[in-house]
Amino acid sequence: MELWELGAGELARLVRERRASCRETVEACLRRIEAVNPRVNAVTVTLGERALEAARAADEALARGRPAGPLCGVPFTVKENVDVAGSATTLGVVPLRDAVASLDAPPVAELRAAGAIPIGRTNMPEFGMRWHTENALRGPTRNPWSAGHTPGGSSGGEAVAVATGMSPLGIGNDGAGSLRWPAQCCGVSALKPSLGRVAQAGERAGPAPFAFQLLGVHGPVARRVADLRLAFAHMCGRSGGDPWHAPVPLTGPPVGTPVRVSLVARPGGAVPDPGVADALRRAAAALTEAGYVVEEAEAPALVRAAEIHTQIMSAYGRVHREQPPVETVASEGFARFWAAFEPVWNRSAGEPAFDPMMERVSLARLWAAWMSRTPLVLAPIRTHPAFPVGADLDPGWLDGWPETMRTAVAVNLLGLPAVAVPAGVAAGLPQAVQIIGPRFREDLCLDAAEVIEAAAGPLTPIDPAPLPIRPDRA
């Protein structure tokens, strides 16, 4: 087996046991990027020289007898809206192509301190505001399962990099499903942590808008749930000046056995695609076989939770009072997308709340009471699989989007943890589910996700599917 095929934990173990050097692990992933990335365009910038220098220094330190860190020699990639010292934090937009960060974002610094080595930056849609990864600065990222289907967004580059073996581990973020949706599209796992777990602070644009402080979190992407657990344990330590940061123990108190799970099969009344419904059934069966008690239920006030998420994002998601016209800072494709989606977005906000934050607290109390009885929720990420490229430019198609993502955005609104985990393949595309837990109970989510993963078997790494042959090139 090639080194690039191994997970983060396996690579770290090989380095600790001196069966592989840090340089060998980095070189293996850099070669994989060189071989595969031209077909998928997930890695936008390769940090090869710096990564090899870091690997050389780590190998020399090990040779002098220094103990290996828990992630020593493990390569990782970072989405282009997370600061990496010496690399541009572009947000996928042309005006920020030279916005080079002088400091690492806290989770990047934490992984470096554990011995991991950043090897590249990954693609994202402009501003992270689209569910398909494409922009004028870097171009489109292709789904390795099917070039005709979206890789998801906004952490689409990360999901593709990990799925194809270019990286065993990545850092992305999630404000409305942006880690979990690409994981579903690409057949990888992702952890959306609780609000406050992983520090958000970075230097790229000063204080973030309130909506992004409240709804968005950084989290890991990997091919195995065990690697999510390993990375997460080393992403939470320092606050980086983030006032939301909460240094809470990684493992909570026992919840009693058997652990109860609510299966939300039709979130808010939405009817899932047959492939997604089958993935939920198989995940529920795996949990039941492992001793969990799974009962079908409806999440409380789910439709309203999705509406309040939209209201908060709409009211408090701006960096400036007066925004420049979208076409002056973004691509023609993004401008088309936003023109089509803005009316849908406005309608999905529902009845305006007198005070959306006050209503959020009421919703959080409802969910807390529900989850005190059944601490885990098994639900779809999106009720449909990866869509054909270009579908999200169609106003008619977009009209149905909000109801398909209700469970994903409710998790962001309430600051809860969730793990996306593959649960099989249908019609040639990966299918995934999410396990949602109470705040700061990532441990419960990861435990259940490992059960589902064991039953489904590995889906990645994979080689990209061949590009379709155009008639004029046949």
From TrEMBL:
Signal peptide residues on this chain, from the entry's feature table: none
Residue intervals of the Amidase domain: 24-446
Lineage top rank: taxon: Bacteria
Name of a matching Pfam family: Amidase
Gene3D superfamilies: Amidase signature (AS) domain
Family annotation (NCBIfam families): PRK07487.1
PANTHER family (alphabetical): FATTY-ACID AMIDE HYDROLASE (PTHR43372), FATTY-ACID AMIDE HYDROLASE 2 (PTHR43372:SF4)
Protein name per the record: Amidase
Organism: Microbispora corallina
Organism lineage: Bacteria, Bacillati, Actinomycetota, Actinomycetes, Streptosporangiales
